């Protein structure tokens, strides 16, 4: 995973607001992730965690506020270019079922980075090897376990050499025995120095891997800090109640 470490940047979310009609889902979110750090976002269902991630890579335009990479606003950037810089992995792996694993990884390399076939194949194979799937390049997604499919999705995002990675409940759709392998890949990536925002229900992962844990509630980050502070010395009663329910 070392290739990923060289290019990561800091991420700042500043006062981001977003409403779906009358539903004010994000009500002034602030989050700072230094270069190479991992922020885990925890919080109750419907608090706006997924929506926050989608505003970071502009799958959704926020109504107000800004997102900065290395101190520079991404507003006005070409969305395709931004999504190469900010990779995202979803709960449902979103692989193309009719394409081989290799083609799933090379597609964006060829279309977005305009690489030739040989170069794209070589890069994709190297990335698949990093996630432990060198032998599966010619398989179809349906021939893989959910955990393997998710690792393909991670390889696909990493092949674009992102500077930030976003994970939206990447292990929530997996059978319990497959969760560890995917979390292991994510922990390796974090250790290699990738800047990451990880929305997760895996409190063990947050405790061990995060530099910052941010608790979201009703569209704001209510409390954030190092894992030991958030998990052992939570200040806000709503965070304490949430932790009582999930730990
Ligand atoms: N595209 C959309 N259109 C309208 N409402 C939406 C849309 N996406 C999300 N919402 C609403 O925004 C709110 C926050 O949803 P979001 O998925 O961000 O929460 P979450 O914290 O990630 O929840 P969970 O942990 O259950 O995934 C919910 O009320 C949801 O119904």
TrEMBL record:
<feature type="domain" description="ABC transporter">
    <location>
        <begin position="11"/>
        <end position="243"/>
    </location>
</feature>
<dbReference type="InterPro" id="IPR017871">
    <property type="entry name" value="ABC_transporter-like_CS"/>
</dbReference>
<comment type="similarity">
    <text>Belongs to the ABC transporter superfamily.</text>
</comment>
<keyword id="KW-1003">Cell membrane</keyword>
<keyword id="KW-0813">Transport</keyword>
<dbReference type="InterPro" id="IPR003593">
    <property type="entry name" value="AAA+_ATPase"/>
</dbReference>
<dbReference type="GO" id="GO:0005524">
    <property type="term" value="F:ATP binding"/>
</dbReference>
<dbReference type="InterPro" id="IPR003439">
    <property type="entry name" value="ABC_transporter-like_ATP-bd"/>
</dbReference>
<keyword id="KW-0472">Membrane</keyword>
<protein>
    <submittedName>
        <fullName>Amino acid ABC transporter ATP-binding protein</fullName>
    </submittedName>
</protein>
<keyword id="KW-0029">Amino-acid transport</keyword>
<dbReference type="Pfam" id="PF00005">
    <property type="entry name" value="ABC_tran"/>
</dbReference>
<keyword id="KW-0547">Nucleotide-binding</keyword>
<dbReference type="InterPro" id="IPR030679">
    <property type="entry name" value="ABC_ATPase_HisP-typ"/>
</dbReference>
<keyword id="KW-0067">ATP-binding</keyword>
<dbReference type="InterPro" id="IPR050086">
    <property type="entry name" value="MetN_ABC_transporter-like"/>
</dbReference>
<dbReference type="InterPro" id="IPR027417">
    <property type="entry name" value="P-loop_NTPase"/>
</dbReference>
């Amino acid at each position: 995973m070392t290739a990923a470490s060289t290019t990561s940047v800091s991420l700042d979310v500043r006062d981001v607001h977003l409403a779906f009609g009358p539903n004010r889902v994000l009500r002034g979110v602030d989050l700072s992730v230094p270069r190479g750090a991992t922020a885990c976002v925890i919080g109750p269902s419907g608090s706006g965690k997924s929506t926050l991630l989608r505003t970071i890579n502009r799958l959704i335009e926020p109504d107000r506020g800004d997102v900065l990479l290395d101190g520079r606003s991404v507003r006005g950037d070409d969305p395709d270019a931004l999504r190469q810089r900010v990779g995202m992995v979803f709960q449902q792996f979103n692989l193309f079922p009719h394409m081989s694993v290799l083609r799933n990884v090379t597609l964006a390399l060829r279309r977005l980075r305009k690489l030739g076939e040989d170069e794209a194949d070589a890069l994709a194979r190297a990335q698949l090897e990093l996630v432990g799937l060198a032998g599966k390049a010619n398989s179809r997604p349906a021939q893989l376990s959910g955990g393997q499919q998710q690792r393909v999705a991670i390889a696909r995002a990493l092949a674009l050499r992102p500077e930030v990675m976003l994970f939206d409940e990447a292990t929530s759709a997996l059978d319990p025995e497959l969760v560890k392998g995917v979390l292991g890949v994510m922990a390796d990536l974090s250790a290699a120095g990738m800047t990451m925002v990880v929305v997760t229900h895996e409190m063990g992962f947050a405790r061990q891997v995060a530099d910052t844990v941010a608790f979201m509630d009703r569209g704001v980050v209510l409390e954030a800090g190092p894992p030991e502070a958030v998990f052992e010395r939570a200040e806000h009663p709503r965070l304490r109640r949430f932790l009582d329910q999930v730990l």
